[in-house]
Here is the input.
Amino acid sequence: MGLRFRNALDSIQNWIESRRVSDPATLLRQHDIPVTAQRMAVLRAVAGRPHGTVDAIVEDVRSSIGTVSRQAVYDALGMLVKKGLVRRIQPAGSPTLYEDRIGDNHHHLICRTCGKTVDVDCAVGRAPCLTTIEHSGFQIDEAEVIYWGTCPDCLAAR
Here is the structure.
């Protein structure tokens, strides 16, 4: 099972890499967002560290462009989430995570031991991926699922 799991993870990561925009300035312009060094650095940091925390993103942005306030990074992330360029993931009991894989309603698998987070494709291939038992009158457009478990590295370390 460990080898199959790793092969699946590798194929998911390859798919993600193929969908990333290499030029943050173009992406910002396509969404009518003023291009700034901070916004481009935040987009690069999120792309370079999928499922990164704010602390990790701030660190990457600072190493990229120098001094930047934590609040500026929060502001950029908030605007990028609002515009749909970055996705915010808020697992229970864990720090908020950010990723640039958007628009496909995928889910996440999180290791309880080390916190490693990986993408899991939608179980049925299209949003919202789940159907409710009781129709409540809502128009459902997204399902957020987080699977919890232990990653292969942590299992091997036991």
About this structure: The two ends are 16 Å apart (CA to CA). Residues 111 and 155 are 10 Å apart (CA to CA). Residues 14-19 have pLDDT under 50 and may be disordered. Helices lie at 2-19, 24-30, 37-48, 54-65, 70-82, 152-157.
